[in-house]
Amino acid sequence: MDDKKAAILSEIPRLRRYARSLLRDRDSADDLVQDCLERALVRLDNWQTGESPRRWLFTIMHHLFIDQMRKVNRRGEAAMLPLEAGEAQSAPADQVESIASREIIDALQAISPDRRAALVMVAIEGFSYAEAANILGVPAGTLMSRIARGREELRGLLDDSSRRRSIRIVER
Questions:
Q1: Model pTM score
Q2: Cβ count within 10 A of residue 136
């Protein structure tokens, strides 16, 4: 039992990263991770010994996220909280890479949650298309379509932001 708990605890950084990619609010993301861990520990017998808990945990988290989004949609509340100017960047960027990274993160947050989840699962978390489709509960073709559309949407958003960055406003 302790080996299972240790394996689950080792996945917390990945769970946190995925939760933060789904939700803009750190506190909400941490709550999602906590809910996921609670559910996993209660249902520890559902996880098969010898297998990595990663897919199992990501499936739990995704289902919790979908439930949360449905609840928010029923209540009519905003699903994503906009970043405040101070949250976007705590210190001025000294390097071009920092600005580019921030633009990528902002663009990723701007695309739809379904496309963002698909992209994060495959491009960042390293799941195969089949694994990601299984975790998200969609057919592989749907997952590939979401990834393709998400990438296209990201390119458009990033092209826009690079154009805006290259235009300088001069005040007289």
A1: 0.65
A2: 21
